[in-house]
């Protein structure tokens, strides 16, 4: 049975890991050490976790959800102003069907994808949305960079090691806003096909309408049970840099609720001109061989877009074993 055809289970046999961000950044030495261990275990065993006490004001998140809803409720002609197709176009808005299960089925969603770091880009409407998004992504970037420090420590490195090796000061950050219309707007299948994300870590916040599922022990399980929490997913370059220790997490969206679903998604990666391969220090410490070919991050993005639409994975190009 393929991962695409695996059954869905809404009740996982073991609970999804929950990480307390406040203990990572403000806890005692012992609390910090325990959270670092928990992050490492979650990244290795699950490839994902729920992040609580993240410090991002709920009012800010709610305003982002409202602004996003306002954007997608603009007219089609208004949204066409921001239509683009290249993977590195700073603003990309698209509406329509996407393939699922090797084009056997079609799923519907709309999305707005923005490059927000190292340079910030955002549509100039609706009024005030750009200013709001700028504040939001600065907050999520701070959280992501602190998590990367925790991941670095969990791998046995100093907190700054991954940040320095991957040039994260100039790191590539996206804000992808996904809009799945209500059944009143669209009476059809809504969702997103199984995939992994580029980058190191993806932060995802949903508007209270469930839909995110991850593969676990051959079954799809939901990640929607923790209040005011971010879902955090290992991404492809986490797997590459850790030489396969922290696997990139396969996930999908299946919207069964009648209501409109909106998600705020932040992939966080190295700088575009950084060549990413397995950490040389990790290979030396583990006395192991590299499992992935080094590749410039910008080239990986181009490959990923091309291969995903063909039902393949960019790892096919760089995996050695």
Notes on the structure:
With 321 residues, the chain is of the alpha+beta class. It has a single domain (8-318), classed as Jelly Rolls, CATH 2.60.120. The chain contains 10 helices and 15 strands. Strands 2-3-11-8-13-6-5-4 form an 8-stranded mixed beta sheet. Strands 1-10-9-12-7 form a 5-stranded mixed beta sheet, with no helix packed on it. Strand 4 (91-100) and strand 5 form a beta hairpin. Helix 2 (29-45) crosses helix 5 (129-154) and helix 3 crosses helix 5 (129-154). The longest helix has 26 residues, at 129-154. The chain is globular and about 55 Å long.
From the 3D structure, determine the CATH topology.
Jelly Rolls
Number of helices: 10
Shape: globular
Which strand order do you get reading across the main beta sheet? 2-3-11-8-13-6-5-4
Biggest sheet, in brief?
Answer: 8 strands, mixed
Average pLDDT reading:
91
Structural domain count: 1
Number of strands: 15
Annotated CATH homologous superfamily: B-lactam Antibiotic, Isopenicillin N Synthase, Chain
Classified by CATH, the class is Mainly Beta
Helix/strand order: EEHHEHHEEHHEEEEEEHEEEHEHH
State the share of residues found in helices, binned by percent. 25-40%
% residues in beta strands: 25-35%
Architecture blueprint of SSEs:
Blueprint: E1 8-9, E2 18-20, H1 21-26, H2 29-45, E3 48-52, H3 58-72, H4 76-80, E4 91-100, E5 105-117, H5 129-154, H6 161-165, E6 173-180, E7 190-195, E8 201-206, E9 212-216, E10 219-222, E11 230-234, H7 236-241, E12 251-255, E13 261-268, E14 275-276, H8 280-286, E15 295-296, H9 297-308, H10 315-318
Parallel strand pairs: 1-10, 2-3
Antiparallel strand pairs: 3-11, 4-5, 5-6, 6-13, 7-12, 8-11, 8-13, 9-10, 9-12, 14-15
Helix pairs in contact: 2-5, 3-5
């Amino acid at each position: 049975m393929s991962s695409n055809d695996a059954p869905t289970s809404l009740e996982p046999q073991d609970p999804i890991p929950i990480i307390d961000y406040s203990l990572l950044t403000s806890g005692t030495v012992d609390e910090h050490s325990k959270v670092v261990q928990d992050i490492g275990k979650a990244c290795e065993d699950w490839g994902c976790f729920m992040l609580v006490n993240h410090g991002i004001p709920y009012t800010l998140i709610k305003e982002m959800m409202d602004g996003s809803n306002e954007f997608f409720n603009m007219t089609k002609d208004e949204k066409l102003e921001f239509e683009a197709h290249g993977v590195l176009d700073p603003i990309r808005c698209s509406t329509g069907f996407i393939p699922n299960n090797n084009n056997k089925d079609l799923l519907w969603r709309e999305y707005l994808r923005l490059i927000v770091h190292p340079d910030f880009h955002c549509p100039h409407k609706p009024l005030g949305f750009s200013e709001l998004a700028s504040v939001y992504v600065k907050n999520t970037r701070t959280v992501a960079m602190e998590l990367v420090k925790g991941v670095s420590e969990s791998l046995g490195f100093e907190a700054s090691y991954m940040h320095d090796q991957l040039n994260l000061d100039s790191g590539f950050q996206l804000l992808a806003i996904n809009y799945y219309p209500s059944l009143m707007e669209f009476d059809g299948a809504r969702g997103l096909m199984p995939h992994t994300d580029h980058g190191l870590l993806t932060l995802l916040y949903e508007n209270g309408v469930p839909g995110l599922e991850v593969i676990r022990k051959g079954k799809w399980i939901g990640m929607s049970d923790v209040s005011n929490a971010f879902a955090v997913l290992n991404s492809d370059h986490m797997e590459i840099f850790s030489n396969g220790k922290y696997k990139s997490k396969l996930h999908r969206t299946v919207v069964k609720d009648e209501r409109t679903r909106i998600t705020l998604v932040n992939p966080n990666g190295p700088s575009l001109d950084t060549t990413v391969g397995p950490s040389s220090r990790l290979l030396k410490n583990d006395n192991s061989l590299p499992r992935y070919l080094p590749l410039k991050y910008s080239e990986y993005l181009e490959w990923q877009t091309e291969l995903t639409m063909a039902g393949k994975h960019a790892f096919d190009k760089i995996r050695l074993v």
